[in-house]
Amino acid sequence: xxxxxxxxxxxxxxxxxxxxxxxxxxxxxxxxxxxxxxxxxxxxxxxxxxxxxxxxxxxxxxxxxxxxxxxxxxxxxxxxxxxxxxxxxxxxxxxxxxxxxxxxxxxxxxxxxxxxxxxxxxxxxxxxxxxxxxxxxxxxxxxxxxxxxxxxxxxxxxxxxxxxxxxxxxxxxxxxxxxxxxxxxxxxxxxxxxxxxxxxxxxxxxxxxxxxxxxxxxxxxxxxxxxxxxxxxxxxxxxxxxxxxxxxxxxxxxxxxxxx
Length: 260
Description:
A two-stranded antiparallel ribbon has the order 1-2. The chain is built from eight helices and two strands; from the N terminus they run H-H-H-H-E-H-H-H-H-E. Helix 4 runs antiparallel to helix 6 (116-158) and helix 4 (63-87) packs across helix 7 (160-173). The longest helix is centred in the middle third of the chain and has 43 residues, at 116-158. With 260 residues, the chain is mostly helical. It is rod-shaped and about 85 Å long.
């Protein structure tokens, strides 16, 4: 096992890339949990219209029915509010193409410095700058979306209790309980089938930054003058699926052989 040396830029790059992947996988799990929320909603709406008709048409006038239906509406609406915020596409940070470093940034550095080792460190520093900014952006998104998922799930589960009480009133009012149970099973199977066949959409918006390079990063890296490093920002795209949020970088851009 290699020694963890925080004075080595290669190690700093390695731990930042691993953390980038960790946040990406965690974000995928949050989005995958949306299926569980939809499953809860599907079960709740099966008899929701008949229950509303019982109340609006005064078929059931018991005070408990009105009370628990009001509690259910509040919990369900709050859960729905957080679910909507969960599925709104965030601006995820993406890593730039490696060519940006071994061609564009390299040529810009070589106009100023003749030493390949100096150019190599400066390229690594620009890459670290991009990784750190991307990590900061994706971490904030992960924390925010995780909280939306948590509250949407909790309030959705809490709304089941008053819903079942209202459903009990509806079943007791019905003259044919067996027919109601069969209808419930049929509707449930239909909703579950729809859930299994749902497709997730992906919206990706990207833009290319062609402006002149800006020098000077905030991170104080070992053996590097931060004021000489080209600032490197990650690309932002909006996603709504559990698709991998960035391509795994297997080859470092500065390891490409120098041009003859």
